[in-house]
Amino acid sequence: MRNDDNKNMGMRLLEKGQKGIIHAVFSRMGLFLLLLLLQAVFLVILFEWFKEYRPQAFGGMVLLTGAMVLYLLNSHVDPTAKITWLVIVMLTPVFGSLLYLYTQLDIGHRALKARFEQIIEMTKESIPQEESVIRALAEENPGAASLVHYIQRSSCHPVYDRTEVTYFPLGEDKFAELLRQLEKAEHFIFLEYFIISEGLMWGEVLEILVRKAQEGVDVRVMYDGTCEFVLLPHKYLKLLRERGIKCKVFSPVSPFISTHYNYRDHRKILVIDGHTAFNGGVNLADEYINRVQRFGHWKDTAVMLKGEAVKSFTLMFLQMWNIDERTPEFILTAENSCRTKWVTSESREHSNGYVVPYGDCPLDNDRVGEQVYMDILNRAVKYVHIMTPYLILDGEMEMALRYAAERGVEVILILPGIPDKRLPYALAKTHYPGLLESGVKIYEYTPGFVHAKVFVSDTREAVVGTINLDYRSLYHHFECATYMYGTDCIPDIEADFQEMLPKCRQVTPETVRNEKWTVKLTGVLLKVAAPLL
Predict the structure, then answer these.
(1) Residue 156: its pLDDT value, please?
(2) What is the largest CA-CA distance in the chain?
(3) Of 179, 309, 369, 443, which sits with the fewest C-beta atoms within 10 Å of its C-beta?
(4) Cα 245 to chain centroid, rounded
């Protein structure tokens, strides 16, 4: 099925020129974007029609502004986001009030929320917590056990022992092992990724998936709808299905404005036969394995789980897979399958430590991803070492970082030296002065871009997953991660962090003062809109 020109790139389903900006413009996606633009033009014209009533409306706008300010001050909106909305409403009372009302009505995702709540309710007892495991963790570390108890509140996320975890310090390492594990699949392969892009990485994975599907393995692929902008055409679903792969797009883009588009599936999950799972920051595109370089060297991380904890990633995938299914019997079938045949995890009696795979859903009131990070910061004794591509913090997270440093914990952040997006990069630098003042150490990775999402603390607990330190991840995206306590791979994570430090430049008050004025100004101007980015 390969073309001769692509024989070293694995399988390709698209001809040259079938993806990218040109394709997006002259395609179904181009039509969608055109319709979105027409809707925006219509709104502008509508406001223009009523311009003669502006003098009479001035008094009304003053009253509206006052009412909205009082309402926002007494609302339960995050304090940082509250400031953003106050500024917007005071600058543009009518438009700002309507925009706020629109976002609070959640037009476009109420049905999604209802379906997700239904799925969680139907599957929350699918994987019971083994009481002996949680008791053993509580005896070893009551604080970690309390964190696990909090994680369990949001969904079915038990704590497991008998799970072997392997840490991959680069996307290339994950990719090599991923291919080996895919070849072993006998029953099913579940694959859920934020980004899939044709090239060497996806081509070699796809080649195995197609072959396994032909052998009777249940192969399911799910990717986020943002891929349809420039990476994959809408017809890609059909191309995969024609080769025996069950495929879905989470929240495909449509031509109508909706708050639903604020919630993206940022997760990276791959499950094989219920006994092996991969999680981390690595998407299925060539920059993640440094096959191509867009922003210097791409630093990313991942973990492979073997054993009992894979049950949770299996269930997480099935919950998301069924989010657009309206037939309850299908959900029950997936649930029962998860309980029996598909979760035949291999015993790992000699594996040390505890593992909790968990998800974070933007449709509930729990900010699980942020709370886990803050809990680690608040319980740390010696150090918390962090890798993150973005640093757009709310007040609570910034205070947690600063407080940990102020009470003597070594808090070190490694951020990109070469940014992939200029605006988040400028915003990140607005947090530098306050963090440095409290004793937080900040380093920038000079060889390129850091996409890893890693917390490691006191050589006893760590998190590797998809959750960035920004509003997108902490508030708006579907995310997932692997929490570990006492697992054998945690020293490997810390060793990787230490190996990175000599490759970084340290940020100091002097380097902050000498930053380009354009970067400083951009950060200051964007600060007010940070929660909306």
Answers:
(1) 78
(2) 78
(3) 179
(4) 24
In contact, 206 and 285? CB cutoff 8 Å = no
pLDDT tens digits, 333-372 = 444 444 434 444 454 556 789 999 999 988 887 899 999 9
Q: Would you say 404 and 397 are in contact if contact means Cβ atoms under 8 Å apart?
A: no
Spatial separation of the C-alpha atoms in residues 246 and 362, rounded to whole Å = 26
382 phi/psi in degrees, rounded to 5:
-105, -50
Output the DSSP codes for 20-68: SHHHHHTSHHHHHHHHHHHHHHHHHHHHHHTGGGHHHHHHHHHHHHHHH
Rounded Cα distance, 462 and 456, in Å: 4
DSSP string, 78-89: -HHHHHHHHHHH
**Residue 109: both structure tokens together:** 């995702």
CB 485 within 8 Å of CB 137:
yes
Q: How many CB atoms lie within 10 A of CB 112?
A: 17
- Check residue 254 and report its DSSP letter: -
Domains for the chain: give ranges and CATH numbers: 21-105 (no CATH), 110-355 (3.30.870.10), 368-532 (3.30.870.10)
Each residue of 459-472: b (16+ CB within 10 Å) or e?
ebbbbbbbbbbbbb
Which pair of structure tokens corresponds to residue 139?
């005896």
Please check whether residue 526 is in contact with residue 424, taking contact to mean a CB–CB distance below 8 angstroms: no
**How confident is the model over 112-130, as pLDDT tens digits?**
778 888 888 888 888 989 9
Lowest mean pLDDT among 217-231, 268-282, 415-429: 217-231
pLDDT of residue 329: 42
DSSP E strand stretches across 217-339: 218-224, 246-250, 269-272, 276-280, 297-299, 302-307
CA nearest to 392, candidates 478, 474, 513? 474
* Cβ atoms of residues 213 and 243 within 8 Å: yes
Question: Worst-scoring range by mean pLDDT, 31-40, 132-141, 399-408?
Answer: 31-40
The β-bridge partners of 479 are: 360
**Percent of the chain that is helix, strand, coil (3-state, to 5):** 50, 20, 30
Region of 440 on the Ramachandran plot (φ > 0 left; ψ -120 to 50 alpha; else beta): beta
Task: State the Cα angle at 277 between 275 and 282, rounded to 5°.
Answer: 170
CA 393, chain centre distance (Å): 15
Q: Which residue has the higher pLDDT, 82 or 471?
A: 471
Q: Specify the pLDDT at position 336.
A: 47
Q: Report pLDDT for 60.
A: 67
List, for residues 18-51, the tens digit of each pLDDT value.
554 444 444 444 544 565 566 567 666 766 766 6
Angle between helices 79-91 and 93-105 (to 10 degrees): 140
Measured distance CA(176)–CA(182) in Å, rounded:
10
CA atoms within 13 A on the CB side of 514: 5
Average pLDDT of the chain to the nearest whole number: 85
The pTM is what? Answer: 0.86
